[in-house]
Design a protein that fits this description.
This protein is α+β, with helices and mostly antiparallel strands. 51% of the residues lie in helices and 23% in strands. The chain has 5 helices and 11 strands. The longest helix is centred in the middle third of the chain and has 42 residues, at 139-180. The relative contact order is 0.10.
Length: 313
């Protein structure tokens, strides 16, 4: 019985030591995050999100690793085979090593991996119970082990609650970074172009002098946004709110807030995290515009990035 108590105390010491290491790692990660944030405030949101995701994922993997160690020790004590668990532990350690590469980190991928490991842990719980029954452990010993399993289950539930809180916070941070990375169109100006190519500005034009609608604007600098190819969609709305479009001249549709929207014209660009003057042209092809106030809207990557307008007399 003393041996059992010592073994139980060793496992508790191992758990506390692992938790202390986790706490130290969390402090170190937060310290490095703070230093990086001081160096570049413009990328603060991106770094915070990435560090939070990494921290949450590492915390989950460390918790699973600790539970695997306990399961391996229990199954060995009961005379069972642990080859599969040792292989899973090696696989988990490889996943933890890959966390060092922040550029290739995918929260969705690790969530799937973590669910896989949690399923395996649940299966091993059943295996442990089966081994104990087969060995016919004495009633007192069975009671002691049942209490240990109960304690571990409570700890697992507590860890699950903590991880759920981290997941919720990570999702909130992910939404914040998506908003922060949205492009912004500034200095929006609508120019009327006649069929002879003459341009007029001022925002108020005669219908017969409008052959094309030329929209000039500037994309603001955004160091949080990803530098890559992006599609900018232009929507021109008439006084009744209908979108001007002509599929034969380049109009089409895109998805915004999970619904399909028609666009008048589209522009593909290569964004490089700096201010960019841009122009989108929509041609009416000789079809006159009705009089009234018109609205122009610009969209990119699921966000409305700017709005302007003009008047037709």
């Amino acid at each position: 019985m003393n041996y059992n108590k010592e073994q139980k105390q060793d496992r508790k010491n191992l758990l506390w030591a692992a938790l202390a290491i986790l706490a130290l790692l969390n402090v170190l990660l937060l310290y490095f995050f703070y230093q990086e944030r001081k160096e570049n405030n413009s990328k603060d949101t991106v770094i915070a999100t990435r560090m939070e995701e990494l921290l949450t994922t590492k915390s989950k993997l460390d918790s699973i690793s600790l539970q695997l160690d306990i399961k391996i020790a229990q199954i060995r004590q009961l005379g069972g085979r642990v080859d599969s668990l040792v292989a899973i532990k090696a696989e988990l350690e490889r996943d933890k090593q890959q966390l060092r590469d922040r550029n290739s980190f995918s929260m969705k991928k690790y969530e799937e991996r973590i669910k896989h490991y949690e399923t395996l842990l649940a299966e091993k719980d059943e295996e442990i119970i089966s081994l104990r029954r087969e060995l016919g452990t004495a009633t007192a010993r069975n009671q002691e082990l049942s209490e240990q399993v109960s304690d571990l289950q409570s700890e697992k539930e507590n860890l699950g609650q903590l991880l759920e809180e981290h997941s919720t916070k990570a999702a909130q941070l992910e939404q914040k970074i998506a908003i922060a990375s949205a492009l912004k169109a500034e200095k929006i100006e609508v120019i009327a172009v006649s069929d002879k190519g003459k341009e007029r500005d001022g925002g108020s034009y005669r219908s017969k002098r409008i052959d094309q609608i030329k929209v000039n604007f500037e994309l603001a600098e955004n160091p949080v946004a990803e530098a890559n190819e992006k599609d900018i969609f232009l929507r021109v709305l008439d006084p009744d709110g209908a979108v001007l479009s002509d599929m034969a001249t380049g109009s089409g549709s895109f998805i915004h807030n999970e619904r399909e929207m028609i666009y008048s014209s589209k522009l593909k660009i290569r964004y490089e995290n700096r201010k960019m003057p841009l122009t989108i042209i929509y041609g009416r092809g000789g079809i006159p515009l009705k009089t009234g106030n018109y609205t122009v809207e610009l969209y990119a990557e699921g966000f409305k990035i700017g709005q302007g307008g003009f008047t037709v007399k």
